[in-house]
Fold this sequence. Notes:
By secondary structure, the chain is an alpha/beta fold. The chain has three helices and 20 strands.
Amino acid sequence: xxxxxxxxxxxxxxxxxxxxxxxxxxxxxxxxxxxxxxxxxxxxxxxxxxxxxxxxxxxxxxxxxxxxxxxxxxxxxxxxxxxxxxxxxxxxxxxxxxxxxxxxxxxxxxxxxxxxxxxxxxxxxxxxxxxxxxxxxxxxxxxxxxxxxxxxxxxxxxxxxxxxxxxxxxxxxxxxx
Length: 177
Ligand SMILES: CC(=O)SCCNC(=O)CCNC(=O)[C@H](O)C(C)(C)COP(=O)(O)OP(=O)(O)OC[C@H]1O[C@@H](n2cnc3c(N)ncnc32)[C@H](O)[C@@H]1OP(=O)(O)O
């Protein structure tokens, strides 16, 4: 699953891990509403690796949480969806706008394979000091280079180099910084 091979998502261990993640993410949001400090251990239990000063505003939606790494100084605004069937690596000092989606899973385009419930997933890497504007969607297998800015609403289908501004659907580089 983590290696990008096709698989059928009916494994009971995966279902249990997903249920655990749903419960922890829900609890994180509930506790955060009245006491963000008390909510912190719940976030640390949910996320595979998160720097002590990284901050995520709930609601947060993940598949498993365990395959997510978040570096120091990173901030994610409300409504991050991080589907971590494959690893999601978020660097240091990353700014994530509201309702961003990081989508590592894919389904086959072939209709028969899709009906057979085959799935796959590819890792996503967000480099240091990247800013993802509100509503950005990053697709499976994409790497965004450090210091780059992705404009609000962009759909990132291909790798983005370091030090650029990219906007639109599909996201295209409009200038170097
Ligand atoms: C962590 C947080 O919570 S962040 C809070 C949420 N805030 C946001 O999501 C804001 C995100 N910001 C943006 O999308 C901004 O538009 C930026 C950062 C991309 C602007 O970057 P700049 O390089 O300054 O671009 P600039 O404003 O000069 O626009 C350049 C061109 O791109 C277009 N453009 C700018 N942003 C976008 C966008 N999101 N989608 C499509 N086109 C865009 C402009 O219309 C302009 O086009 P034109 O030349 O035809 O007039």
